[in-house]
Amino acid sequence: MQQLDDYMFTYTKVKVVRASKRLGLIRAWLMTTRHSTAPILTYLDSYCECTGGWLEPLLDRITRNSTTFVCLRIDFINGSTLRYDWSSSEYIVASPGVLTLFSNLSLR
Prior knowledge:
Glyco_trans_2-like; disulfide bond; polypeptide N-acetylgalactosaminyltransferase activity; extended; Nucleotide-diphossugar_trans; Glycosyltransferase 2-like domain-containing protein
């Protein structure tokens, strides 16, 4: 853990926050909101890989209306062929836990 702290020390806008016990993903996200000073928070799981230009459309919608809840359209890599499949669906993929997290962000 010290190696991570030493590495992240060079990034002055990044703070490593650790829980005293295991919390689970959603509770950990909520814990970090209490330490954040940023006006907009973005959470990505470790397995997410972003393509170029993914953030700008999200920020655009939020800056137009600060009460907007924005969820990514998720593309997939086919597990059998490793082919990149972009999502042409108009549906949003979100778990109930993520929706609960965003509905409770007033805790901050």
